[in-house]
Amino acid sequence: MNTHFSHITTLRVRYGETDQMGYCYYGNYAQYFEVGRVEAMRSLGMSYRLLEERGVMLPVSEFSVHYIAPALYDDELTITTVISGLKGPRLYFDYTIEKEGKLIATATTTLVFVTKDTMRPIPPPNDFVNLMHPYEQEQ
Amino acid sequence: MNTHFSHITTLRVRYGETDQMGYCYYGNYAQYFEVGRVEAMRSLGMSYRLLEERGVMLPVSEFSVHYIAPALYDDELTITTVISGLKGPRLYFDYTIEKEGKLIATATTTLVFVTKDTMRPIPPPNDFVNLMHPYEQEQ
Amino acid sequence: MNTHFSHITTLRVRYGETDQMGYCYYGNYAQYFEVGRVEAMRSLGMSYRLLEERGVMLPVSEFSVHYIAPALYDDELTITTVISGLKGPRLYFDYTIEKEGKLIATATTTLVFVTKDTMRPIPPPNDFVNLMHPYEQEQ
Amino acid sequence: MNTHFSHITTLRVRYGETDQMGYCYYGNYAQYFEVGRVEAMRSLGMSYRLLEERGVMLPVSEFSVHYIAPALYDDELTITTVISGLKGPRLYFDYTIEKEGKLIATATTTLVFVTKDTMRPIPPPNDFVNLMHPYEQEQ
What we know:
Four copies of one chain form a homotetramer. By secondary structure, chain A is α+β, with helices and mostly antiparallel strands. Chain A has one domain (5-132): Thiol Ester Dehydrase, Chain A. Chain A contains three helices and seven strands; from the N terminus they run βααββββββα. Chain A has helices at 29-44, 48-53, 126-132, and strands at 5-12, 56-57, 60-67, 76-87, 90-99, 102-112, 114-115. In chain A, the strands form two sheets. The first copy, chain A, has a five-stranded antiparallel beta sheet, with helices on one face. Chain A has a two-stranded antiparallel ribbon with strand order 2-7. In chain A, a hairpin with a 2-residue loop joins strand 4 (76-87) and strand 5 (90-99). The longest helix of chain A has 16 residues, at 29-44. The mean pLDDT of chain A is 95. The interface between A and B is medium-sized, with 24 and 24 residues. Strand 3 of chain C pairs antiparallel with strand 3 (60-67) of chain D, so a sheet runs across the interface.
């Protein structure tokens, strides 16, 4: 029985990421999820930097986030990234953010493999498909 | 028959908002929608700045965006903000972004009225409810 | 007697640009000065976007800012940008930020004309030099 | 003979921090230097978070940076932060950023101790002065 590929990374809320409510600004979570998925792909054996150098890009087409409790300045956050699916040119990620063991946010993104030349969708590179092979990819 | 309150604002993509793909970074749209709803509320007669000074805050609890086509550096974007609902402490907004008449993104947010003292949900202020009165608020 | 080319633009501090001190975060001024110089160049007749499309880039090599008083959420800021010099591949700008007629920040930047191919310094494009001709360029 | 207090921290350039030139946007370095000085103060035994909770704030009054070579996406940067001086309410930091052993940026900031109540300058807290005591503070 396969399971999804999952990866954990941590980061600290920067001062410049807070807003005058004293919360981490809701728009800054997008960078946290990006860090989560880049590190997840790196640990799977796929450098996003090298992917781009090969002419393949992965823009985000859908992004959805549920804010449960605020992240505050200097909080250490644990981001769990799950590669939840790969279907045609689309790559799906699920995320959770926890602080001190408490769930504070969940999110999902859809990314699309495109070629740098035309920015049109393309099938995922074979080496990425092979790296994903041991893992479940229902969607 | 009532209709939803709707407001249009324009802004230009800044250089620092692009990423190395040449797109406006997906995380920066959150600020654009915030500009949209702040200006929508201002045109309705409600200053978000004054609301905070009265001890009422409006953190975002849900945020969802669909990216249809990229926004590029220096593009002038037209953001249409619709106040789509008010239900208990929750305030719902829908957004579209167009460039040169073409739809490039849609989004929704849910915000929650909270009191600054405890950050617990509260009913919307009466003056805001009155301002919303002429408009449809189904949700 | 010539004078420097000068341009005024206004913008409003966004919520996401504040920090938990309630100030506009010190790092966000860089974007404001960039808006100032892009609009200054546009009003002079030079689109920075078109410049890049012609293979010429203008990275910043020096940036210095003096924060006199805070910019707060929703403040409308007046940015005055002066093209203070052009010397070899280097382009110099001076900036002031005012709110309600009061000076709250001053800054300077040095930018360098480089060619996209090699990112090496190049002389400024002739059409830019011609646009600058009526103005004083001591440095 | 005393020396300045110095601290090294590392971070990786995020995708959202690049611009369409493919460089880390010049405005994003401000956050990197902030991470540098917060971690320097933490390693000295002073939490900036706790400092604020005690009603003391440290806004930036001067910021100057020299960009020598670009930081690119996914580069791992080494930030060296030196507490270079403490004079009245003013705290001075010097910074360098290196990648792969090569210097790519230098910077300085001046911060001012202020009290949260009035945002007026105050002498640095005694415990901070004591922590600084072993180190040279000429300025």
